[in-house]
Amino acid sequence: MADSILDRFKEADEVEASVDTGKKVKIGIIGTGWIAEAHVKNYLRCPDVEIVAAADLVPGKAEKFCKDNGIDGIRLYPDHKSMIDAEELDAVSVCTYNRTHAECSIYALEHGVNVLLEKPMCVTLDEAVEIIKAEKKSGKILSIGFQPRFDENMKMLKAVVESGELGQIYYIQTGGGRRRGIPTPYGTSFIEDKTAGLGALADIGCYSLDMVLNAIGYPKPLTVSGYTSAFFGKDPGYYPTHPEYAKVFGVDDFAAAFIRLEGGIVLDFRISWAMNMDTAGDTLILGTKAGLRIPSTECWNGSIGGPLKIYKTLAGSEVETEIPKRTNKEDNFYNKIRLFVDAVKYGKPAPVPSSQILYNQAIIDGIARSAKAGKEIVLDIPEV
Fold first, then answer.
1. pLDDT computed for residue 301 by the predictor
2. Comparing C-alpha atoms, which of 73, 74, 68, 78 is closest to residue 30?
3. Within a 13 Å sphere around the CA of 21, how many CA atoms are in the beta-carbon half?
4. Residue 343 belongs to what H/E stretch?
5. How many Å apart are CA 168 and CA 191, to the nearest integer?
6. Is 17 a residue whose pLDDT tops 80?
7. Among 34, 192, 246, 295, which is disulfide-ready with 305 (CB 3.0 to 4.6 Å)?
8. CATH classification of 149-329+361-378 is 3.50.50.60, yes or no?
């Protein structure tokens, strides 16, 4: 029985297409912080890409970044507007603070430039709506930086759900987090409200939400009852060498929510940068025919913590089927970059479409607003 179930999820190996280097895709980098390093590293792996420019608000930061990452000699700008105005770019990677995601993306789209926007999409639902309006008006490609989508185990998770093996899904428990993992090694940009806007909720919570929402087809979220806290982030004792960080901590380090989705599905969510626990629990997807367990990871890494496991009743006996953890043929971040480049070159759909991430952002925004209001709220998501 186990073998017959597993056979249903086997996939033929994909044949890699050769890369046409006849035309180079010209890329600009907006924001030269640490996440931009991964963008540059993987763009450099694409023989049909040319990184031609970079922009950063901090004087000298772009120069050092480019030198450190082997792209010194490209044109540098003090902000995204001057770069986009001066260059003939095919696309940009937006790698700035959360608070400026919308501004940079909208300006690029309005000027006919394709956009790869790092996660989270932005801070508020209103911003997400404005970004998508600009995308639709421009006719350009906007893809959101959710590279875990391309993990082989995430694909398997989606295949299991779509197979119908679980039956009608009615309840999902998901989340993740870190026992001690407030991202201050990168300075205070992740923890100050003026730059980040949101904390763990958006930083890694967006990934946990996407994992399950993508698997079940991204049903529309209807209501949210949310909670956020910042007990660890605001404690000077958390930062032995930088107690001053507690004074500027202005986001959440923990969030939880109860979300109702179309189709009668309930989503029980929790996420953490810091907590007195080793895990927030495995992800569970409960269906009328079977249940699925997705093991948690110690720290969100874009995949799963062990084999998927299906629980069901067969001929009156309770049985379990383990689906072995799969190995990726390629780095997920490279796949994110490569698929975006191909979409730009050949007019393909965005690898991670904004229409889906709009719902992701609506939930995140709803959790933050519900937590502030202290009550459940109805999500009003406009048609864009």
1. 65
2. 78
3. 5
4. helix 332-346
5. 40
6. no
7. 295
8. no
Residue 16: what pLDDT?
46
- For the question of whether the overall pTM of this predicted structure is more than 0.90, the answer is yes
Smallest Cα–Cα separation from 191: which of 247, 240, 145, 241? 247
C-alpha triplet 186, 97, 229: angle, nearest 5°? 75
- Residue 165 structure tokens: 């093996």
Report the relative pairing of strands 308-314 and 265-272 from DSSP bridges.
unpaired
- Cβ–Cβ contacts within 10 Å for residue 98, how many? 23
Task: Give the Å distances, CA to CA, from 143 to 33, 164, 236.
Answer: 20, 29, 38
Question: Residue 344 corresponds to which amino acid?
Answer: V
Strands 49-55 and 75-77: parallel
Helix (H) or strand (E) holding 83: helix 80-86
- Short-list 90, 28, 91, 89, CA closest to 62: 28
Q: Which pLDDT tens digit goes with each residue over 254-304?
A: 999 999 999 999 999 999 999 999 988 999 999 999 999 999 988 776 789
Both tokens assigned to 107: 């300006």
Rounded CA Rg of the chain: 21
Q: Where on the phi/psi map is residue 73: left (φ > 0), alpha (ψ -120 to 50), or beta?
A: left
Model pLDDT, residue 5: 46
> Residue 9 above 70 pLDDT?
no
Task: Give the C-alpha separation, 191 to 185, whole Å.
Answer: 11
3 state DSSP class of 48: coil
Where do you find CATH 3.30.360.10 in the chain?
149-329+361-378
Q: Are 157 and 305 in contact (CB under 8 A)?
A: no
| DSSP β-bridge partners for residue 287 | 169
Q: How far apart are CA 271 and CA 374, in angstroms?
A: 18
pLDDT at residue 327 tops 50: yes
Look at residue 179 and give its three-state secondary structure.
Answer: coil
Q: Which CATH number describes the domain made up of 25-147+333-353?
A: 3.40.50.720
Task: Tokens for 231, please give them.
Answer: 């007990």
The phi and psi torsions of 124 (rounded to 5 degrees) equal -120, 160
- Give the integer Cα–Cα distance in Å for 130 and 263: 27
The residue written with tokens 């050092």 in the block is: 64
For the chain, the first-to-last Cα distance in angstroms comes to 46
